[in-house]
Amino acid sequence: MDKKDIMPFQLFHHHGNHYVINIDRMQASPINKITAETLNMIIKEPESLLPIDLEETLNLLGLISRDSGKKETIITKEPVPIVYMYLFLTQSCNLRCIYCYGNGGEYGTGGSMEEETAFQAVDWFIEKAEKMKKVHLGFFGGEPLLNFPLMKAVVEYAQKRTKEMGKEVAFFLTSNATLLDDEIIAFFKENQISVQISFDGPKEVQDAQRPYASGQGTYSATVPKIKKLLTAVPRTSGHAVLVGNTDPLLIKDALQEIGFTKVSISPASISLFNEDSAKETSTRDTQTVLQALEQEAETWLHLIQSKDSAGLKSLKASSGLYGLYRGMVSLLHNSKRPHFCGAGRGLIGVSVSGDVYLCHRFVGMEEYRLGSIFEHDLKREEYLKNPITCNQLCANCFARNYCAGGCKHDNLSSCGFITTPSEDMCRLRCRELELAATIICNLTPEDKAFLVEEQIIAPKPCPLDF
Predict the structure, then answer these.
(1) Measured between alpha carbons, how far is 404 from 339 in angstroms, rounded to an integer?
(2) Quick one: which of 321, 198, 210 has its CA closest to 267?
């Protein structure tokens, strides 16, 4: 048997125990030392073992597929409906975050959206949603609350138009919270707008990383507004950006102390508009994130085995973009991820002038302009492909069905190509999956049932459900 005929798997150890991940089946299993040594020998010298014995051994372990030589064909039906639209109400901002990938929120051009353009964007969006009954309209910037009057007009218009077309619209917003007041908070609550607040943690970090345009810190002025918002809209989430070697656990604790129950964290990306000035501030020390993941794995296992439902729900809410929850779900459900996100497929970004881009992070970059809300067709064929097939690095990676190639914007800013992920992000994603595997491999059937009963993890979907 040739090495290429062996179903790809990842062999690793953690705290003295051995584990294996079946990549194509997204399964994880604990194994003993002898089996680990055998598998390690297969990896290094597959031709040295007897073909029949090898095949039977791997088959019994669930590590080989009789159809492993067949290539999976992924067929994309076109057109793919667009159900998420990031609408840029303004390309200006009142902050000067040191890591801003949008060039101070201007995204190269600056300006504010006109009402006529916004309404046209809504109509275009409804058309592009095809037969989908629910659409998600997000307000972005810059700081979108700088154009709050337009936001109110768009919400009213979108609710009216979707109702006429037999659809439902959900609104979401990303804001720095500096402009919050009673009117805005009441508007969010009344219209059930899902709000994410960008906030980087304790005072010394927030003030250093997210100052006003004047250079003044924002922590003291903003925290009281956030707390008032959380009182009215408790499910508001907080998102922080890591710069340098900042401890992510310190950041999570700071956001939870403010009152956020849902927290996400991501390392900073280099700006594609002002690369030279951003490189220093967006230097990533992923070692601190890796250390936090190791600690998180221990916490997950302890809380599950202790049957601590409240602690698990809190941990789930703070697992965010870099955490182990999604990896656990992927392995428990044996699910594959064909795309990292919906960029260029079900999700797009619309600039203040009505140009359509790959996603909100690419606004202002002509190379990634897909078209316009004043045109019917979009140039997005390239982004409908499975990204794993676009680069050999991902095709050979054991985390390919979990990571799916990574964030296109981060790939571009780190490596110069949207299909090539950076080494530090690969390291994070791979270790996430390994640690998630160690958790589920140490769970009893009773532990897994508890997670479902307490609604920590949803039941595995039935393959016959559509």
Answers:
(1) 5
(2) 321
Tell me the residue ranges of DSSP E strands in 303-455: 347-350, 355-357, 369-372
Cα-flanking dihedrals φ and ψ of residue 11, to 5°? -105, 130
pLDDT tens digits for range 45-88: 655 544 445 455 555 555 554 444 444 444 445 568 999 999 99
Q: How far apart are CA 461 and CA 333, in angstroms?
A: 7
In the chain, % of residues over pLDDT 70: 87
Using CB atoms within 10 A of its CB, is residue 319 exposed (0-12), middle (13-18) or buried (19+)? buried
- Where in the sequence of the chain do the CATH 3.20.20.70 domains occur? 84-284+340-356
Strand ranges for 342-452 from DSSP E: 347-350, 355-357, 369-372
CATH class assigned to 84-284+340-356: alpha beta
Q: Which residue has the tokens 């922590």?
A: 219
Give tens-digit pLDDT for 329-376: 999 999 999 899 999 999 999 999 999 999 999 999 999 999 999 998
- Strand-pair category, 84-88 with 347-350: parallel
Confirm if 91 and 106 have CB atoms less than 8 A apart. Answer: yes
Per-residue pLDDT tens over the stretch 205-229: 999 999 999 999 999 999 999 999 9
CA distances in angstroms from 156 to 131, 150, 187, 283, 321, listed in the order given: 22, 10, 11, 42, 32
